[in-house]
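Researcher: We're teaching a course module on how sequence relates to structure. For the next exercise, students receive a sequence and then see the predicted structure as tokens, so they can try to spot secondary structure elements on their own. Here is the exercise chain.
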Amino acid sequence: MGLEVANFYQEQAYKSLNGNTGADIRKLIDEYKAAGREKEIQTKVDEYFCAITLLY
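Model: And here is the predicted structure for the students to work with:
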């Protein structure tokens, strides 16, 4: 349990430092939609999740 808690907070800190919080992803999606760049959204979201996966 202690390791899970530590990993959770480490991931949260990483997201905060790298601008990858849920709110940041939502903002990115909204900006891409407003700019008519819907086709690029999935690529950016995949990059976000790839960065998290590399943590572990």
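Model: If you want an answer key for the exercise: DSSP finds three helices and no strands in the chain. The CA atoms of residues 12 and 21 lie 8 Å apart.
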